[in-house]
TrEMBL record:
<dbReference type="InterPro" id="IPR005303">
    <property type="entry name" value="MOCOS_middle"/>
</dbReference>
<dbReference type="GO" id="GO:0003824">
    <property type="term" value="F:catalytic activity"/>
</dbReference>
<dbReference type="Pfam" id="PF03473">
    <property type="entry name" value="MOSC"/>
</dbReference>
<dbReference type="InterPro" id="IPR011037">
    <property type="entry name" value="Pyrv_Knase-like_insert_dom_sf"/>
</dbReference>
<dbReference type="Pfam" id="PF03476">
    <property type="entry name" value="MOSC_N"/>
</dbReference>
<protein>
    <submittedName>
        <fullName>MOSC domain-containing protein</fullName>
    </submittedName>
</protein>
<feature type="domain" description="MOSC">
    <location>
        <begin position="124"/>
        <end position="270"/>
    </location>
</feature>
<dbReference type="GO" id="GO:0030170">
    <property type="term" value="F:pyridoxal phosphate binding"/>
</dbReference>
<dbReference type="InterPro" id="IPR005302">
    <property type="entry name" value="MoCF_Sase_C"/>
</dbReference>
<dbReference type="GO" id="GO:0030151">
    <property type="term" value="F:molybdenum ion binding"/>
</dbReference>
């Protein structure tokens, strides 16, 4: 079994991007969801409520900056992590405060989304603990991802889901599930039972099976909403009042230095 895709989401709820390799940090992949979108009062805004966020992209720059890229002919905007800004309250769970990116970034984002919004930066992911209810242990930190540092999805599981889906529904792309790591897999949904995984030279602990929300029903290309995959998952993968696909993983690293994983790395179950 091996890694077939790696994806990062520099801004929470923006479109993701494929990468050939990525550094694993204790809180997730480097460059993954350290930026977020909030209303002026700090209330988080995601693509669950504002589908159009998925039409925006962001490219991490080698010097630590971020390039915001809009749809169509929108002029890209460079943004640097704020260092001297005054933190503002935000409503991300267990986050409390974040650093505002500044007026120029806010104006760019607000114009694209046609509503007043702010772009914020998470300065220290170790200050946001992984909830014990989602498999976290004391001292483990988290980016602005919903519940776990990394999300792994299996091509074998996706193939089974597409086989279950009605014939008049085009095959679903794994991008809908916003994974960080995609593996070719073996048996469909075998990942539900994994307890420790080694990807290349990095070990991960199983956090939980991932419950899926309405965001998976948004077509990442057209931004139109439909009924899949929730409708089909509800027939085959529903328990505890939710539908389930993919697993959340928690890195087991020595210190904060990080370690690199890459497409093509071997995946082993320890």
């Amino acid at each position: 079994m091996q890694v077939t895709r790696l994806r990062v989401y520099p801004v929470k709820s923006f479109a993701g991007r494929d990468v050939a390799s990525a550094v694993v940090r204790p809180w997730g992949l480097e460059g993954d969801r350290r930026w977020g979108v909030v209303e002026p009062d700090g209330t988080p805004v995601t693509a669950r409520e504002r589908n159009a966020l998925l039409g925006l992209t962001a490219e991490p720059l080698s010097d630590g900056g971020l390039l915001l890229v809009g749809a169509g002919d929108a002029e890209p905007l460079r943004v640097d992590p704020p260092v001297d800004a005054t933190p503002i309250p935000v409503g991300h769970s267990r986050q409390r405060e974040a650093m505002p990116a500044g007026d120029e970034a806010d104006a760019w984002l607000s114009e694209r989304m046609r509503m007043p919004l702010r772009l914020v930066w998470q300065p220290d992911p170790l200050q946001r603990p992984v909830n014990p209810a989602h498999g976290g242990l004391p001292g483990e930190g988290l980016s602005l991802a919903d519940a776990g540092p990394l999300l792994l999805a299996s091509e074998a599981s996706l193939a089974q889901l597409n086989a279950w889906t009605p014939d008049d529904v085009p095959p679903l792309d794994v991008v809908r599930f916003r994974p960080n790591v995609v593996v070719d897999g073996d048996e469909p949904f075998a990942e539900d039972a994994w307890r420790r995984v080694r990807i290349g030279g990095v070990r991960f602990r199983f956090g939980e099976v991932c419950d899926r929300c309405v965001m998976t029903t948004i077509d990442p290309d057209t931004l139109a909403r439909g009924k899949e995959p929730i409708r089909t998952l509800a027939r085959h993968r529903k328990w505890d009042g939710a539908t389930w696909f993919g697993v959340r993983l928690i890195p087991e690293l020595d210190g904060d230095a990080g370690a690199r994983i890459a497409v093509g790395d071997e995946v082993a179950i320890d």
